[in-house]
Design brief:
About 30% of the residues lie in helices and about 15% in strands. By secondary structure, the protein is an alpha/beta fold. The N terminus and C terminus are likely disordered. A six-stranded mixed β-sheet has the order 7-6-5-10-8-9, sandwiched between helices. The chain is built from nine helices and twelve strands. It folds into two domains: about 120 residues, 3-Layer(aba) Sandwich (Rossmann fold), CATH 3.40.50.10440; about 110 residues, Hypothetical Protein Tm841, Chain: A,domain 3 (2-Layer Sandwich). α1 crosses α2.
Length: about 300
């Protein structure tokens, strides 16, 4: 886990590409500039920022997507559940107008900072010799290795994790802070000297985005989770809506080493989507949303054979 060497990571343009031809990396797109985290190494590809999708004319955004497909071949849009409904509708409209299975719309169940981290991990993988379908499928796999939460000054409007009536009542007490994990397993505790949260069982980096709240406890959490260290970034604009308050500090623990990400993804068996034919990992194609055919179970087929007239 702690290795920083790019073990087994194949550079772009080596396999499956004609001699002398350089493959253009799959485009990883986000819906606002604050979701495009800075690169961690020289390999990480830049994020494509789809600004103001719900405010610009349809023909303008359609031309932008057409150009992206022509340049990159495939586009993976990673966005959170906190984006405005108008943005989501525009994305589906564009995909429908282009009649393209080369646009993947991926909305994992993560808070905004976790979404930004996942998008950067996909940008790291896009620098390797992985097919678009595998990169898109990797998003679902890597989500399991992301631990996202926040320190909140109030849980009165929090609806992303279960909140007890007692916690709601304590939200009105001045100075009360709550530690919340939204993913992978919901947790909510009141912050105190001995407060702990169940964290990852592997070493990670922790990314912190500070809102309108001051707390030194986040450093204690990083130590208890065995983090390599803390990195800071501005709070995404969507975070206040997602968590129900601006009095917060959002945090996400994640795997930062490209060699580890690559080995996780390539260790999973690849198959071809039975509908669009693209290579995928897992049981669902992120591009066309097809799942494996639902074949009849053996017991059901045997029953049909016994009841079918000769």
């Amino acid at each position: 886990m702690k290795s920083s060497r790019l073990i087994g990571v194949t550079p772009v343009g080596r396999r499956g590409v004609k001699s002398g031809e350089l493959r253009v990396p799959t485009a990883i797109a986000v819906t606002s500039a604050d979701m495009a985290l800075p690169v961690q190494d020289e390999r990480t590809v830049p994020a494509v920022v789809l600004r103001d999708l719900d405010r610009r004319p349809l023909d303008q955004t359609l031309a932008e997507f057409t150009a992206l497909l022509e340049q990159h071949g495939h586009v993976i849009v990673v966005c959170s559940a906190a984006v405005p409904d108008a943005v989501t509708r525009r994305l589906h409209t564009l995909r429908g107008l282009l009649e393209s299975d080369r646009i993947a719309l991926f909305r994992p169940d993560l808070p905004p900072l976790g979404i930004a981290v996942l998008a950067r991990q996909l940008r790291q993988l896009a620098s390797c010799d992985l097919s678009p379908g595998v990169i898109a499928s990797a998003g679902r796999l890597l989500t399991h290795y992301i631990h996202s939460g926040a320190v909140l000054g109030s849980v009165a409007k929090l609806d992303r994790v279960p909140v007890t009536l007692k916690a709601h009542a304590k939200s009105w007490m001045p100075g009360t802070q709550f530690a919340v994990v939204a993913h992978p397993v919901p947790q909510l505790v009141r912050v105190g000297p001995d407060t702990t949260l169940t964290g990852p069982e592997f070493s990670t980096w922790m990314l912190v985005a500070r809102g309108q709240l001051q707390s030194e406890w986040i450093g204690d959490l990083a130590k208890s989770w065995g983090s390599y260290g803390l990195r800071e970034t501005p709070l995404p604009a969507e975070s206040s809506l997602w968590w129900g308050t601006g009095r917060m500090i959002e945090f996400t623990s994640y795997l930062a080493d490209l060699s580890v990400l690559y080995q996780l993804v390539t260790s999973v068996r690849q198959t071809s989507c039975h509908w669009c034919g693209i290579d995928v990992i897992g049981d669902r194609c992120v591009f066309c949303s097809a799942t494996p055919p639902d074949y009849d179970p053996p017991a059901h087929r045997a029953l049909e054979q016994r009841t079918t007239p000769a």
